[in-house]
User: Fold these one by one.
Assistant:
Number 1:
Amino acid sequence: MTQEGVALGRMLFFDTRLSANNQISCASCHQPELAFSDNKSFSSGHSGQLLNRNTPPLFNLTWSESFFWDGGVKNLESLSFTALMNPHEMGSDLSQLCQQLNEDKNYSSAFKKAFGIDSVSSAYVSRALAQYMRTLISANSKYDSVQQNLAQFSNQELKGQVVFKNNCASCHQPPLFTDNQFHHNGLKQYFSSDDLSLTTGRFRITRDSSDLGKYKTPSIRNLSRTAPFMHDGRFNTIDEVLTHYQNLDPMNQLQDSLVRVIRFSDVEKEDLKIFMKTLEGRPTRTR
Ligand code: HEC
Ligand code: HEC
């Protein structure tokens, strides 16, 4: 990563000219003030048609082992092509886009500075975007300060941490609060095994029936800004999420390698919420 590469990536990320109708940028769906997510269950882009999955927030991507809810993309350098070209996201024609960028003096000189190239190609568009996205770090929450011995948890936060460790941490593993793995967390879902659509989760990638309905564990940092929740944005509030976990169908639990049964009382639920609030951070970069 270079400063020039990151600056160029930032310019591209917020530029609506990257879309076919010049109206949509990456930031239309990945909004900085919402931890680079949006507040919709499903967003729509170029075609106006709703996408099939909830827009995830973007932070701490440097430590992600795979991307998208089903882990279908392995590296950040190639990911942007999907968003740029998908008719339902930005609907862009890459060669036209590169021509446009080449003709723009600001861009051609920024690409020259960042990569030493005289002619813009899409690979460099994607590389610059990846460099910018890697700078989106969320690591300055109260939780992080406590880990650095710069702050202390209150009694209730400590109690909530215990509930969290007993019920949630096996998948939402600190410090990223994801294990980067795929699980079925007991959501009621409907699909058939000959269905290869996006609603089958990890199965779409592996074609292994034990992966039906599994999704990548999302980080639970910054929840105050990332609602609605789950791959399909079905829950609007943290309360709804916790009620879901309190009422898990035991059959669903058995489908996954849940080490232990999830169980917590209503009092513990309040403690858990207080603990999860300590995972709110100001993003180190808001733009
Ligand atoms: C119309 C809305 C929309 C636009 C525009 C959009 N995205 Fe996304 N983005 C999504 C959705 C929805 C997903 C989840 C897709 C999935 O899991 O199948 C996603 C996923 C991602 C991810 C993976 C995050 C993770 O943790 O797995 C990254 C990175 C990303 N987008 C970057 C970008 C970039 C860069 C652009 C601009 C070139 C962009 N997005 C434009 C909606 C959008
Ligand atoms: C077996 C692993 C596992 C356990 C245990 C687990 N989760 Fe999850 N969690 C997941 C997965 C996987 C998802 C995404 C599921 C989906 O969208 O289909 C998720 C989603 C969430 C979300 C939504 C985040 C978002 O941005 O959409 C929250 C909040 C959450 N879990 C909190 C908790 C809490 C609190 C506990 C403990 C009471 C817990 N989880 C236990 C795997 C787990």
Number 2:
Amino acid sequence: MNPWPVVIGPLLFLAACTAQPQVSRGTGAQLYAQTCVSCHGHDAAGNGPLAEDLPVPPTNLTRLAMQNGGNFPYARVMEQIHGYPGRFHVMPEFGPLLAGPDVNWRAPDGTSLRTPRPLLDLATYLASIQEEI
Ligand code: HEC
């Protein structure tokens, strides 16, 4: 008799339970590290390695709430990252890269929006690193 399924089954179950929250919390941070650090920098202050070669300085992404009366502007940030045509000239559009399963998301102001999951993860990560006012 092969004892492995008996042992591995519960182990996989345990791994799924313990790993899940970490994975979802870290997804936005991982996406940021992979796609945004080069310009916006590790601490998101706008000082990535490519920053000085750009004609327009990358925005400090830790002050978006501060500049918006203390509320993190989720919808605007997601639009800007997604890249509506003509909105930015220097920052690339990340809509295609961040496409994913769409989820229903309720904004803090109560409005409901359908948005790609990776875009929401990224915005949630940025919201979590805002400077205190
Ligand atoms: C090639 C460099 C570059 C990369 C890579 C980049 N950005 Fe930007 N980003 C910029 C620049 C430059 C601006 C300033 C606006 C412009 O493009 O003229 C900007 C502006 C923004 C803004 C607008 C802030 C505001 O309200 O004014 C947000 C939000 C943002 N970036 C988020 C991101 C995120 C998230 C990523 C990764 C998915 C990313 N950026 C990757 C260069 C970059």
